[in-house]
């Protein structure tokens, strides 16, 4: 909470006091004119913090003392509570608790409890009219989209009636009238707020006057018009009507009456859903442009109806049904067995559906109402819209507000307008939030008035004190977000300032894989998700099913006459350059087992999958047709290329890609189909599997998935980066790593056929020096091949990968010091870390193992890159083998003048 107040409240207070000058009276007036809101206040925790902070400052101004007396402090807090603080919450009990908390904090023995009904209110902050101009514009047509429980014909009739009403809306009603009425009501409330509360009688009189104001004809009319407009989104669209339309809103605004049943419907829906019309609840605030500060920790859950949650206590048998199909069947039976519970279930579903419809269609949340609705982003967009032009917001929200795909439009808009003040990401490992899982990530998000000041950011914090470490905090300007995530403008996740500097330097040199605007896709790549594991499951067959149907296993495919079922590969079956990393034991559904070394050394051994899918279904997904059925894209090669979607920045490795045969792939194994010649695709594979690329990927992944929008924005060397000598170095090495089994002979054949003569000579020379299998393909192998697969040799593969890692690090512009950093930041001395982009090294011999271990043990640098890989290798080999092999490769290539010139295709 203190961090939120420091980022959001303190700067506003300082600016207001500075503008007031040195006069204590002016400073007091400036402080008491502040308007501070929590739109999801709960029991008032954040407002209490604001009250204490503002109260102390006000008492200091009044007394001129650094430590005011308790009496002066409490008097000041009382004035702050009754003048500055506003709260809204949907839960009536929370509202009462908030009032009690504020009363207890601000109670002065000689005075009665303050009147708070005009400032602490019950309602749904997300549902209702925020800006009265929507009343003048009428109910939008989107309000009549059918919801759960609605009838399509009724919705169509209601929409047509509304269209008729909208045609005359602009001519018959003026926004100016609304503005004038709002101004008059705001003035009345301003005068009301200034009434004294020094005696019980004054408080009682104030309460009675407020009730009278709320019952005045003008306000009741505006409230009813706002209720009607909002209720149009919630009303059941069934039967013949009548239905609420723009005509009814206009009628009430003009002083007329609507049908009693529609008025009662609007008021009933308003009470049930707790509509909250901001412009009428706090008109004095909005007449001055909005709130100065918005604070809070809004709810983080999704707005979604869950059958299992509804039935958990009343019908656990339905809640615990083994799958959706079984649950649906039980619900159908419930309709007959228990109509009362069935209708209660339908009503609950309808209420959630109606709220979802309002969020999606009302226009109040143009930047956060995408996909599955999450409440935290909605409250964040609301907070921004409630601020005045000089206001600031501070909220505790899930980190996905800045990194998630569904929030990209909101975050991009905040960044582009220069409104991001700070984003501090925390892991809950130390239980900052006791009721939240220890792995959950949340952030303190601070918004400011538009400006070009760089935002302050920090990630992977575990406690607020981590912000005192200057290596943990870094700055990014709006143009940096455009550089690092040009398509989404979402936030990268750097552990340290050094990570930010190094990643920024890489992006200035290397372009992203696929820029969307303007379109730049140098690899001509098409990205594809082949089969959904849930919705496509009806296409899948198990080994037992196929054997029972008379299919026979050939390799790892099932064949019956002309019918072929191909294996459905899943992400856990792969590793770098290894499409035989793991398989399902005997094709069962029990889980995967890693293939033993002897299996990998057999080029005819193929892993079995959990499921198989018809060949024609796979072929259909490797073709794209237009509306006329004409083919506009087709993948014609007999091999595929993909990467693991499930990934974390804290795993042993993050980006894991491989070649594999032309078979099916599940939804956690995403596909990339480049247009370029095969030798260049091997260079692309070497790039994506390199340590330097993995390092950058770790700076860009905030969750557990590597979806298309993330991968498109990773810095990938384009085809133009590779000179012929680069391909002669890379292609033979990647080919040996990938081509270890006969089922990838088509890949080797394509590379051979598309290689020029110098590259062929390099491949032949490499093959002659490498162990290969005898020229004896299995019966199931089809098509030509240039030579048998390479032998799987663990030690040799480790050395080859180390050479590729060193080579790509140089192509990306890294110095040896930069390479040391990405493998283990604790390898660098403080002087080396001070300027990471400089090639200067204080360490003379990085391969001195004892000196390295001493540096790493003594380092207090908070960053980490491949810690899990390092720890695993130390357990297995007694050393961080990857680091040694890569640095040895760098030294060897440097000595033999084989290190490439760095690619420089970006803006350096």
TrEMBL record:
Write down what this protein is called.
site-specific DNA-methyltransferase (adenine-specific)
Q: Which residues form the Type II methyltransferase M.TaqI-like domain?
A: 84-307
Kindly state which keywords UniProt assigns to this record, in alphabetical order: Methyltransferase, Plasmid, S-adenosyl-L-methionine, Transferase
Which PROSITE patterns does this entry report, sorted A to Z?
N6_MTASE
As recorded in UniProt, its EC number(s) are: 2.1.1.72
Name the PANTHER family for this protein: DNA METHYLTRANSFERASE A (PTHR33841:SF1), DNA METHYLTRANSFERASE YEEA-RELATED (PTHR33841)
**Which SUPFAM superfamilies does this chain map to?**
S-adenosyl-L-methionine-dependent methyltransferases
Query: Does the keyword Methyltransferase feature in the UniProt annotation?
Result: yes
Q: What is the reaction catalyzed?
A: a 2'-deoxyadenosine in DNA + S-adenosyl-L-methionine = an N(6)-methyl-2'-deoxyadenosine in DNA + S-adenosyl-L-homocysteine + H(+)
Named from the GO MF annotations, one term is:
site-specific DNA-methyltransferase (adenine-specific) activity
């Amino acid at each position: 909470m203190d961090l939120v107040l420091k980022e959001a409240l303190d700067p506003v207070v300082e600016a207001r006091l500075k503008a007031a000058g040195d006069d204590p009276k002016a400073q007091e007036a400036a402080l008491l004119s502040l308007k501070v809101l929590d739109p999801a206040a709960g029991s008032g925790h954040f407002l209490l913090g604001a009250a204490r902070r503002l109260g102390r400052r006000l008492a200091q101004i009044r007394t001129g003392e650094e430590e005011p007396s308790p009496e002066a402090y409490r008097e000041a807090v009382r004035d702050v509570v009754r003048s500055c603080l506003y709260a809204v919450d949907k839960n009536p009990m929370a509202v009462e608790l908030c009032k009690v908390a504020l009363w207890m904090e601000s109670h002065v023995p000689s005075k009665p409890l303050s009147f708070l009904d005009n400032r602490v209110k019950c309602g749904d902050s997300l549902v209702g009219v925020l800006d009265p101009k929507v009343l003048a514009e009428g109910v939008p047509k989107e309000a009549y989209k059918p919801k759960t429980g609605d009838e399509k014909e009724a919705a169509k009739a209601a929409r047509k009636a509304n269209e008729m009403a909208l045609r005359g809306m602009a001519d018959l009603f003026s926004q100016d009238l609304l503005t004038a009425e709002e101004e008059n009501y705001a003035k009345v409330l301003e005068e009301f707020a200034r009434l004294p509360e020094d005696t019980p009688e004054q408080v009682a009189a104030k309460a009675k006057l407020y009730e009278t104001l709320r019952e005045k004809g003008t306000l009741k009319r505006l409230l009813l018009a706002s209720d009607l407009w909002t209720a149009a989104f919630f009303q059941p669209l069934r039967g013949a009507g009548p239905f609420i339309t723009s005509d009814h809103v206009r009628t009430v605004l003009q002083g007329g009456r609507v049908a009693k049943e529609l008025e009662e419907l609007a008021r009933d829906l308003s009470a049930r859903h707790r509509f909250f019309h901001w412009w009428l609840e706090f008109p004095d605030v909005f007449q001055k442009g909005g709130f100065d500060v918005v604070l809070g920790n809004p709810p983080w859950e999704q707005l979604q109806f869950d059958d299992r949650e509804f039935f958990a206590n009343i019908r656990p048998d339905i809640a615990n049904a083994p799958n959706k199909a079984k649950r649906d069947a039980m619900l159908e039976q419930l309709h007959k067995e228990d109509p009362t519970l069935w209708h209660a279930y339908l009503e609950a579903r309808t209420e959630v559906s109606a709220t979802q419809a309002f969020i999606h269609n009302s226009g109040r949340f143009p930047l956060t109402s995408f996909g599955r609705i999450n409440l935290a982003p909605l409250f964040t967009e609301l907070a921004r819209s409630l601020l005045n032009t000089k206001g600031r917001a501070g909220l505790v929200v899930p980190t996905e507000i800045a990194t998630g795909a569904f929030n990209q439009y909101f975050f991009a808009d905040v960044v582009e307008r220069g409104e991001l003040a700070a984003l501090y990401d925390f892991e809950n490992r130390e239980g900052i939030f006791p009721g939240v899982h220890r792995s959950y990530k949340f952030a303190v998000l601070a918004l400011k008035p538009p400006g070009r000041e760089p935002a302050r950011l920090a990630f992977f914090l575990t406690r607020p004190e981590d912000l005192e470490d200057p290596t943990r905090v870094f700055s990014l300007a709006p143009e940096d977000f455009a550089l690092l995530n040009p398509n989404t403008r979402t936030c990268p996740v750097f552990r340290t300032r050094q990570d930010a500097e190094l990643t920024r330097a890489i992006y200035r040199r290397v372009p992203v894989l696929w820029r969307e605007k303007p379109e730049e896709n140098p690899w001509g790549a098409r990205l594809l998700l082949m089969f959904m594991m849930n919705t496509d499951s009806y296409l899948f067959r198990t080994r037992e099913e196929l054997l029972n149907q008379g299919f026979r296993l050939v390799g790892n495919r099932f064949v019956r006459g002309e019918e072929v079922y191909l294996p459905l590969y899943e992400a856990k079956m792969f590793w770098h350059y290894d499409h035989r990393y793991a398989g399902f034991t005997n094709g069962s559904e029990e889980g995967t087992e890693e293939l033993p070394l002897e299996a990998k050394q057999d080029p005819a051994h193929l892993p079995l999958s959990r499921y198989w899918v018809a060949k024609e279904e796979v072929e259909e997904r490797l073709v794209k047709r237009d509306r006329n059925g004409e083919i506009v894209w087709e993948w014609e090669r007999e091999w595929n290329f993909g990467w693991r979607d499930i990934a974390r920045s804290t795993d042993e490795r993050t980006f894991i890609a491989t070649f594999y045969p032309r078979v099916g792939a599940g939804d956690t194994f995403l596909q990339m189909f480049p247009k370029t010649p095969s030798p260049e695709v091997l260079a692309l594979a070497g790039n994506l599997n390199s340590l330097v690329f993995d390092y950058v990927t770790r700076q860009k992944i905030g969750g557990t998935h590597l979806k298309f929008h993330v991968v498109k924005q990773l810095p990938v060397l384009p085809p133009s980066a590779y000179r012929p000598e680069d391909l002669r170095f890379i292609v033979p090495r990647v080919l040996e790593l990938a081509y270890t089994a006969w089922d990838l002979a088509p890949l080797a054949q394509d590379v051979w056929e598309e290689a020029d003569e110098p590259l062929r000579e390099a491949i032949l020379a490499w093959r002659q020096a490498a162990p290969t299998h005898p020229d004896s393909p299995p019966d199931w192998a089809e098509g030509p091949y240039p030579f048998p697969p390479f032998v799987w040799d663990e030690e040799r593969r480790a050395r080859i990968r180390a050479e590729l890692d060193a080579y790509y690090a140089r192509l990306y512009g890294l110095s040896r010091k930069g390479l040391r950093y990405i493998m283990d930041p604790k390898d660098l001395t403080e002087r080396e870390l001070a300027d990471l982009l400089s090639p200067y090294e204080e360490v003379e011999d990085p391969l001195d193992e004892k000196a390295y271990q001493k540096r790493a043990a003594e380092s207090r640098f908070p960053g980490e890159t491949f810690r899990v890989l390092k720890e695993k290798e130390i357990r297995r080999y007694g050393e961080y083998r990857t680091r040694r092999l890569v640095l040895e490769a760098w030294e060897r290539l440097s000595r033999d003048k084989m290190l490439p010139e760095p690619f420089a295709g970006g803006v350096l």
